[in-house]
Write a structure and sequence with these properties.
The protein contains four helices and eleven strands, in the order H-H-E-E-E-E-E-H-H-E-E-E-E-E-E. By secondary structure, it is mostly beta strands.
């Protein structure tokens, strides 16, 4: 089913850059909890540590390569999985190309390519699975630009896809209070699952992670944002 964001949000630009508020200086702050298990001795059940978290996701830099846009971002939801005390925010590249949105953990080679105007970032994402793909539809996997060697699946495991929508009262410092439709973006595997709440033209408003074996989970919601609108 097509998710008609244009009818919900009036005359907004419905490009991914606009839908996700992709602009250097924009940031989102999330608050909640994370849990992870301590290592245990054989035969003993692991103890579970619970941490309060307040996590900032901030767009630092932008670069363009023809139709590709890439953003260096500090802080990401993957930082919250298997959480440990003293963890620092990681660096990520958010990339928009071909109606798709990608999130890649920024290793040194990727950062070097980001800062080298002659380097190809397209090669970095050709077989990566996008997190979001236009047009926005539910119950349909976001598909990579090129198929890899993995076997085709006929279910919604191991791919990002939209499921249900819920209506909430969105309240966060820096945003006007509003009723908003939140689209649930899922990624399921056999051992764990991730759910990201997405509001068009605001960005990501929640994140939930749970491992189905060794205890590890995270649950955060948007509490503040700074979004430039031009």
């Amino acid at each position: 089913m097509l998710l008609a964001c244009g009818t919900l949000w009036g005359q907004h630009d419905d490009s991914l850059v606009s839908l996700l508020r992709l602009k250097p200086g924009n940031y989102w702050i999330y608050s909640g909890t994370a849990e992870s298990a301590d290592s245990s001795r054989p035969g003993e059940s692991p103890s579970v540590n619970r941490f309060p978290v307040r996590w900032k996701v901030e767009i630092l830099e932008e670069t363009a390569r023809d139709d590709l846009r890439a953003y260096l971002v500090r802080g990401g939801f993957l930082d919250l999985t298997w959480f440990a005390a003293g963890r620092n925010r990681g660096d990520y590249l958010w990339i928009v190309y071909g109606g798709r949105f990608y999130v890649l953990q920024a290793n040194p080679d990727l950062l070097k390519a980001f800062r080298d105007p002659k380097a190809s970032l397209l090669e970095q994402i050709k077989r990566e699975q996008p997190m979001i793909q236009l047009p926005l539809t539910d119950s349909s996997c976001a598909e990579p630009l090129e198929e890899g060697d993995e076997l085709k699946r006929d279910d919604l495991f191991y791919c990002w896809h939209f499921e249900d929508k819920t209506r909430i009262r969105l309240q966060a410092v820096g945003l006007t209070k509003r009723n908003a439709e939140v689209w649930s973006l899922w990624y399921r595997t056999n051992p764990d699952h991730q759910i990201v709440g997405f509001v068009p033209h605001i960005g990501f408003v929640s994140y939930d992670f749970a491992h189905h074996g060794t205890p590890s989970q995270a649950h955060v919601k948007l509490v503040a944002a700074h979004l430039k609108w031009d």
